[in-house]
Amino acid sequence: MTKSPVIDPRRTLTLRDVSEASGVSEMTVSRVLRNRGDVSDATRERVLEAARTLGYVPNKIAGALASQRVNLVGVVIPSLSNMVFPEVMTGISETLEDTGLQPVVGVTHYSPEREESVIYEMLSWRPSGMIVAGLEHTDAARAMLAQAGIPIVEVMDIDGAAVDSAVGISHYRAGRQMADAILAAGYRRIAFLGTMMPNDHRARKRLQGFEEVLSRTGLALADREFYSGGSALLKGREMTAAVLNRSPDVDFLYYSNDMIGAGGLLHCLDRGIDVPGKVGLAGFNGVELLDGLPRKLATMDACRLEIGRRAAEIIAAKHPDGIIGGEVIELFPTLQPGDTIRRG
Amino acid sequence: MTKSPVIDPRRTLTLRDVSEASGVSEMTVSRVLRNRGDVSDATRERVLEAARTLGYVPNKIAGALASQRVNLVGVVIPSLSNMVFPEVMTGISETLEDTGLQPVVGVTHYSPEREESVIYEMLSWRPSGMIVAGLEHTDAARAMLAQAGIPIVEVMDIDGAAVDSAVGISHYRAGRQMADAILAAGYRRIAFLGTMMPNDHRARKRLQGFEEVLSRTGLALADREFYSGGSALLKGREMTAAVLNRSPDVDFLYYSNDMIGAGGLLHCLDRGIDVPGKVGLAGFNGVELLDGLPRKLATMDACRLEIGRRAAEIIAAKHPDGIIGGEVIELFPTLQPGDTIRRG
DNA sequence: ACGATGGCTGTTAGCGGTAACATAGGCGAT
DNA sequence: ATCGCCTATGTTACCGCTAACAGCCATCGT
Fold this sequence. Notes:
about 40% helix, homodimer, Rossmann fold
């Protein structure tokens, strides 16, 4: 607006302002503020002093455009409201901390279309890398990621084809493993309780692995119950009540996540049901919340922190020039039997 | 690197590529992609087709620099791992959704220094607005925010001086209100259990209000216990056990958040303590987790969703030219007595 | 027929930095 | 003194896009 030479006191400052205030060229100021190249101590002091008193904040937009370098890493996750993704974020942040890279979060609410648009939006800021939850994306999203020319890490899941790198666990195998443990403990009439969401591919894969093991033993799920939305703990209670009413003879409840599992556990204890004698329970995730429950729910930890760390390491690794990528890192969750499965 | 005229197939695309592929000027392409200005339908189609087949993703860095407009809103919060801030985020996202603005999250881990650096980092991207949790900041951070020339909204708390606008509740008053309710129910030997963190100013203010009411009635806290880190639910149990051992005659436990309150409640129920007859309990926040507990913990909701919404509305409101700002919106939490305070 | 009008497209000049190169001294070795 | 070389600083040319303005052409009223 103001093209007049009159100095607008509310105009935001530029390098030129600092340069004039300290009597050196803009380039020198730039060098001081980025700690790059040789600058004499006297000059450095003068510049820093000027920048400080003016309250100069550099414009990274201009800097990024000129240098073709952006210190941002896009992180695309389905949700922030269940404990799992925040913990992945923690792992990412920790690891990125001393690399100068900064995570930027986008949330998709489990919608593929939203995911596509979030990815598009993020790529338009030309980040140095992208971390995306899951392997399932729209074709357009996959194409954009593949073309972006930056490291891409798909996290949480490794059952499928990755665009570039991947870090996660096999949910399919996790489901099988839990089924094995449950069968080994002698349970036979097993019910599944989980989310309705058709786009929660990881829960789907766990269930698939789980059912495969059952059917190979000549069994099938005795009952199943789905939910969506609401307080997971409360939903867990309600679903459990529904299942136990409908199928009084079930002897095991397999939940797609720990939160509803915890609700189910509380319900069983309320009803005075013998856990794990009459009914066993298991969840998934290994959330620390469980530590405070009256009885420890059987679960499998999803290696969330570790996944975040490893993903960030891949992004931060300066694959100098030749972008290598294409790593797939499988982590192995451990079964935590807790107190809700009969001990062999 | 490649200054040669040879086309690098991995070079990222620019407007020029789309312009050449569709036979119109860059400017026209830009207009099509932004839906701005008049473009004939035929041209529009041709451009969109070209952009789609090439897989062009605009460079917002260049766009932002040229237009001096950035569709980002910085959101600075202490943590993602307790349910409260994600819910504020939800309110913000919802409201920003149809404004073209996009939230960018930064996490401070309750450290003022980290907060300062996160704010600096964010301002250097020249966002359209900033939403920052709390009113307590370093002098430098406050100065940067004040000088930024964009709307600033400080959220959660209104007990103090705002840089620009503020949306939140009075935690001081919330503490007083809870104390009134507890005293009214006849409890007299009251203990406080809360976080150690010196930078959780809101918990501090609640406690301050709480103690003021007690002391005005000639009472003082019968005991107090602090924690930091770890599973809040478990910590709640442990702290509660410690307090009940040390001070067997307390008749009320006031927790600084619902999560430890829930742990405390579970502990009391385990021990078969008469709640709320012998011992009453109350927390703070109104997290939906509580709905699934065996007994509903008394709490006060912190209006988190609403705070997020109102803050985003202030940012999104196109205060055309004349930046008005300076609004302070106080919300009023409601006391939810639940089942853990004796009913008068 | 003619300027006025309006729809559509192109041209020019930056936005605020940084890479790359150029330059001015100062100093020791020859 | 001459040269080379290093240190400290300045100059120039963009990065990829958009605001602002300048054309051009068909249509329209008179």
